[in-house]
UniProtKB/TrEMBL annotation:
Protein's name in the database: hAT-like transposase RNase-H fold domain-containing protein
Classification lineage: Eukaryota, Viridiplantae, Streptophyta, Embryophyta, Tracheophyta
GO molecular function per UniProt: DNA binding
Matches recorded under InterPro entries: hAT-like_transposase_RNase-H, RNaseH-like_sf
Domain hAT-like transposase RNase-H fold: 120-221
Pfam families the record matches: hAT-like_RNase-H
Amino acid sequence: MNDSIVRIRNAVQYVRSSPSRLQKFKNAAEHERIESHSIVILDVPTRWKSTYLMLSTALKFQKAFDRLLDDDACYGLYFSELDSGKNRVGPPKEDDWDNAKVFVQFLHVFYDITLKFSASLSVTSNMFFHELCSIATELNTLANSGDYLLGEMAAAMKYKFDKYWGKIEDLNKLLIIALVLDPRYKLDYVKFCFGDLFEENKVNEMTYDIKELLIKLYEFYKGVDSISSSDQVSRSIPLENEGDMGKVNENVDFRLERLKKFKQMKEKKDFVDLKNEVESGSFVIAALEDLGLIWDCWLLHLKIWDCWLLHLAAALGYIYPKSALEIVLFSMFFVCVI
């Protein structure tokens, strides 16, 4: 794998070494009808993210590199020169490009998640456990993919992953609570994630612990809110920033597959009603999970009421008001009359 990366790096280095060579490379890309707004970039060997970008970009121009070998005689001679007293390896062959594809597929998982966590203008705490489980699941999938090279890299990375993060059951549970409070996932999805990582007994145990912690947090903040309710100021924080999220690579199949699997599981299997499992804390789960649903229903009722008033006013010959104050007074009038 390392030799394949070095061969591609040397090829990119040749193209980027002078404007004339870069122009010949662009001509080769045009002849091969490669449509891309990007151009090959040279990496920093000690930084894996730059190596990922170099390889992913170079793969788009694989045919241009092959054509350059025929169109530019200096390109072939470049690899016969000595580099630091050693023969310069290259040019890249078909096997090297195949290895690069495997390597890019492997690094894409980490590159994409790194971009999401490095967002400075959006909330990321609710994504942590979701992304951590995505990494663990993807590493297990790649390790058992049947591809020897990919499986070997995934197994080595899984060992480092477990060594760095330790056991997921020892993770700060507040990071899991943040995912529970995300209306897109809730407690069902956390239980689904546990199912990918642990045995059934462990899943039930950890799910129960999360619900117990959720109840304790609710009781704590309920007490705090009752003391300082007069000083509270409502604030709204955007969950996502389109500018930051737009920079993330849209090719996130590994994550979409998990969400599809979760949706299919919910359709095939009736999940246990979590609100009835914990008698002492059923109202807590209901309050947290149904908050968004209650808000939607309230807005729907307002729209129905507004539509009803509009038709009633038209039937009685009244001009329906337009301002918010007029609507309130108009509604009070009709309620009193009716």
